[in-house]
């Protein structure tokens, strides 16, 4: 149904910005509805005190906050939930499991004389409400139909599970994912900055990281890391041979030995999959046993052999397979995981999957990875893939810090 609008005003954050317009229109509102794609502390703080005051005086409020691309800050949603203690407040957020993008920017104010609204490009951020070049239209409508239409749309979004009512548990899960995304984005920005500074291939960047690591006298420094890896590799190879040679092994004994094995490796997340690997212990042991019998040292052949052997061994993926090969010979076989692929990216080599798996990586791809990594290793003056992997890990976790 068409809605009549009167007194339209354009807002573009100059003499009169979105934030001040929201504060002005809140003064007479009995019901406030806010639907935005992004919500951040910088924007919410611009009218939070006025909002709280109006809620304390009986104004009801509905918030629908998008969470696409993890742009909305969890702390804002948490503060909105706390407003429920002060009055009639409802808070909805996008469904974490849905892929449709939630992108409106609506600020609706309903009172005894009808409704008025701000609709346009302004999110609940400092940029959206004050400093960006935004454009919205603010208008009045004497009819109450506008509020009913928006309420109906919110109900449709709820029925379609595009949005959900915010709870402490849901917001906590969103906060967890938001933190991970933020760290990854920070790391990506640093990589991009490095690539811009060193567009010729990135070796200069890795050389600087290596120099920094060699100057690091802590346990994370180059000397300590290389010594630790040499010790771990020797111990890991003994455990691997024991897993292959022992005739019978109970589930618990396998789990104990496998846990010792992965503690000598340096790929992240291996501990999370240990109990699942233990469910297929005989398949894992047979794969390792047959690996020791192979006479071929070709990296592609050995990788494909373990891919086939571990086909039914869940959580024994590319990281586990290449860690095993690395135990056999750290000068011939490189570890291929998220960290090392990231490190290769710093060297300007970005042809490999960001997260290598048994589905997207085969022996040919692994052999190419080893060949490219060998060039980087030689250019950096390193003697083994163990040393190169130590540098890759140092760069990766430093970026996440």
3D structure, described in words:
With 401 residues, the chain is of the alpha+beta class. It is built from 17 helices and 8 strands. The protein has an 8-stranded mixed sheet, with helices on both faces. Helix 9 packs antiparallel against helix 10 and helix 15 packs across helix 17. The longest helix is centred in the middle third of the chain and has 30 residues. The protein is elongated, with a radius of gyration of 29 Å. The relative contact order is 0.09.
Features:
8-stranded mixed sheet, 8 strands, 401 residues, alpha+beta
Summarize the structure.
With 401 residues, this protein is of the alpha+beta class. The protein has helices at residues 18-26, 41-44, 48-56, 74-82, 126-131, 145-159, 168-197, 203-215, 222-245, 251-263, 274-278, 281-293, 299-309, 318-328, 338-346, 363-380, 385-400; strands at residues 6-11, 31-36, 60-65, 89-94, 105-111, 114-120, 136-141, 163-165.
Largest sheet: 8 strands, mixed
Number of strands: 8
Strand content: 5-15%
Helix content: 40-55%
Separation, N- and C-terminal Cα atoms: 53 Å
Mean pLDDT: 92
Tell me the Rg in angstroms: 29 Å
The coarse silhouette is: elongated
Report the total helices: 17
- Oligomeric form: single chain
* Unreliable segments of 5+ consecutive residues: none
Tell me the strand order in the biggest sheet.
1-7-6-5-2-3-4-8
Structural class: alpha+beta
Order of helices and strands: EHEHHEHEEEHEHEHHHHHHHHHHH
């Amino acid at each position: 149904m068409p809605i009549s609008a009167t007194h339209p005003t354009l807002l573009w954050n100059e003499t009169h910005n979105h934030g001040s317009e929201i504060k002005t229109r809140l003064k007479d509102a009995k019901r406030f509805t806010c639907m935005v794609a992004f919500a951040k502390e910088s924007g919410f703080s611009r009218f939070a005190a006025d909002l709280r005051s109006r809620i304390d005086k009986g104004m009801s409020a509905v918030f629908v906050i998008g969470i696409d691309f993890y742009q909305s800050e969890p702390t804002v949603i948490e503060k909105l939930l706390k407003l429920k203690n002060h009055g009639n407040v409802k808070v909805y957020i996008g469904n974490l499991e849905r892929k449709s993008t939630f992108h409106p920017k609506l600020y609706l104010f309903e009172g005894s004389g009808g409704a008025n609204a701000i609709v346009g490009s302004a999110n609940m951020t400092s940029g959206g409400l004050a400093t960006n070049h935004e454009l919205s239209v603010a208008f009045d409508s004497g009819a109450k139909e506008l509020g009913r239409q928006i309420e109906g749309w919110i109900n449709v979004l709820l029925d379609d599970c595009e949005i959900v009512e915010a709870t402490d548990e849901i917001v906590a899960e969103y906060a967890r994912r938001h933190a991970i995304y933020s760290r990854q984005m920070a790391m990506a920005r640093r990589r991009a900055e490095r690539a811009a500074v060193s567009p010729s291939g990135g070796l200069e960047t890795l050389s600087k990281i290596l120099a920094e690591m060699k100057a690091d006298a802590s346990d994370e420094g180059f000397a300590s890391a290389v010594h630790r890896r040499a010790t771990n590799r020797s111990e890991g190879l003994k455990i691997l041979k024991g897993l292959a040679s022992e005739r019978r092994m109970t589930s618990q004994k396998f789990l104990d030995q496998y846990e010792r094995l992965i503690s000598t490796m340096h790929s992240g997340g291996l501990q999370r999959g240990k109990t699942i690997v233990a469910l297929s212990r005989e398949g894992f042991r047979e794969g390792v046993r047959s690996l020791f019998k192979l006479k071929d040292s070709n990296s592609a052949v050995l990788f494909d052999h373990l891919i086939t052997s571990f086909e039914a061994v869940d959580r024994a993926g590319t990281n586990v397979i290449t860690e095993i090969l690395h135990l056999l010979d750290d000068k011939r076989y490189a570890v291929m995981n998220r960290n090392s692929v990231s490190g290769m990216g710093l060297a300007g080599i970005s042809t490999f999957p960001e997260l290598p798996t048994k589905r997207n990586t085969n022996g040919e791809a692994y052999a190419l990875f080893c060949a490219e990594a060998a060039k980087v290793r030689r250019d950096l003056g390193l003697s083994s893939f163990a040393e190169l992997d130590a540098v890759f890990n140092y760069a990766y976790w430093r970026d996440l810090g």
